[in-house]
């Protein structure tokens, strides 16, 4: 259970826009956006290991210049997340969810580039901390008295490795396991 992560807190920030060019009325490029993209064979644990800082920042928009009056948009940041994710803000309110492969959620929008409306100064991108919450629903649950053999049964029918001992209340945290069948069907226990 300690190797399994079902909730991850990450910081996301959209890119800052590019500077405008006041002499010729040039507009700076928009900052990049941060996107969560649902992808199979991805886990929250792999995200945590690959990005230990848990910070995702999009690219800055290009400045306007004489050669390019309209600056290019900043590079988007795509974060691959597992299927069945609820995206929650810091207050615990759900702001989105990703259930199917390829679904996308805009986590942080990039700032506007400098233009006449902003006195040719760029705007900062949206920044916030969000929680990625994995929605888990087990197919089967084992319930019984202490020392009834629930952990022993779980270890024999699945790939789980629960602690098994000859005293009551050995299992302190829930144990998760998967039963794999020959036809590749899986049952969560």
UniProtKB/TrEMBL annotation:
Residues 138-189 form the OBG-type G domain. Residues 2-137 form the Obg domain. One of its GO terms (biological process) is ribosome biogenesis. The keyword GTP-binding applies. GO terms for molecular function: GTP binding; GTPase activity. Keywords: GTP-binding, Nucleotide-binding. InterPro entries: G_OBG, GTP-bd, GTP1_OBG_dom, GTP1_OBG_dom_sf, OBG_GTPase, P-loop_NTPase. It comes from the Eukaryota. The keyword Kinase does not apply. GO terms for cellular component: mitochondrion. Gene3D superfamilies: GTP1/OBG domain, P-loop containing nucleotide triphosphate hydrolases. This is GTP-binding protein 10. The gene is Gtpbp10.
């Amino acid at each position: 259970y300690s190797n399994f992560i079902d909730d991850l807190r990450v910081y996301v920030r959209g890119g800052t826009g590019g500077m405008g060019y006041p002499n010729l009325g040039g507009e700076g490029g928009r900052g990049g956006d941060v996107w969560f993209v649902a992808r199979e064979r991805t886990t929250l644990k792999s995200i945590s290991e690959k990005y230990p800082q848990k910070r995702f920042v999009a690219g800055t928009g290009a400045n306007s210049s004489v050669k390019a009056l309209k600056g290019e948009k900043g590079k988007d940041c795509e974060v691959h997340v597992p299927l069945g994710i609820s995206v929650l803000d810091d207050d615990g309110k759900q702001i989105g969810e990703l259930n199917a492969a390829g679904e996308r959620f805009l986590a942080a929008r990039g700032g506007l580039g400098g233009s006449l409306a902003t006195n040719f100064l760029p705007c900062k991108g949206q920044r916030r901390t969000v929680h990625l919450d994995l929605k888990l629903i087990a197919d089967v649950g084992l319930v019984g008295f202490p020392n009834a053999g629930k952990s022993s049964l779980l270890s024999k029918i699945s790939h789980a490795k629960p602690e098994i001992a000859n005293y009551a209340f050995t299992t302190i945290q829930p144990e998760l396991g998967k039963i794999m069948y020959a036809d590749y069907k899986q049952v969560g226990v």
